[in-house]
Amino acid sequence: MSVARAQSKLVVSRRPLHKTPVAVANACFIGTLLTDVTYWQSAEVMWADFSAWLLFAGLVVGVLAVLLALVDLFIGRLSGAARSAWPSLLGNLVVLVISFFNALVHSRDAWTSVVPTGLTLSVAAVIVLLLLCLLEWSFGRNRVEVVE
User: Fold this and answer.
1) Can you tell me the distance from the alpha carbon of 100 to that of 50, in angstroms, rounded to the nearest whole number?
2) N vs C: which end of the chain shows fewer Cβ within 10 Å?
3) In angstroms, rounded to a whole number, what is the distance separating the alpha carbons of residues 39 and 59?
4) Element (H or E) spanning 98, and its range?
5) What is the DSSP letter of 48?
């Protein structure tokens, strides 16, 4: 009587290149909302400056993240998750476009640089980020696969 042994091995895909820059850009955009709210409540110009700096940093890192996501997509580093990568990529592009217009609004002087348009655009960007988070969670990207 022979016993068949099933061998399984854990397949670990390489971490996509764009994940870290996306997280940094998202932190900058969320920070922009927080500094906008603080400026709205305090009218201290320092907070408007912080918002503009965070927007600039988020845009620079966000563009880098989109370029790295395209590289990940086309060199096959996403390990079969290409179908779920396109909505995420498009969503991140929407956040970048909203944040670009937000940066243009924040380039104005004083109160009008944040209230009400800048604050509204910051809220819109964070809402899109939250929707992207829910979308990625629903796709369940971080599953462990067993290959026999």
Assistant:
1) 16
2) N
3) 21
4) helix 82-106
5) H
Dist CA 138 CA 134 (whole Å) = 6
CB 102 within 8 A of CB 118: yes
The pTM of the full predicted model, rounded to 2 decimals, is 0.82
Dist CA 19 CA 3 (whole Å): 44
Taking the CA atoms of residue 140, residue 144, residue 145 and residue 147 in that order, the dihedral angle to the nearest 10 degrees is 180
| Percent of the chain at pLDDT exceeding 70 | 80
Contact 106, 118 (CB under 8 A): yes
> Residue 83 has which token pair?
């179908």
Rounded Cα–Cα distance for residues 133 and 135 (Å): 5
Per-residue pLDDT tens digits for 91-142: 999 999 999 999 999 998 878 889 999 999 999 999 999 999 998 888 765 5
Dihedral-angle region of residue 16 (phi above 0 means left; psi in -120 to 50 means alpha; beta otherwise): beta
How far apart (Å, rounded) are the C-alpha atoms in residues 87 and 109?
A: 36
State the residue for tokens 């604050």: 119
The token pair at 15 is: 């971490």
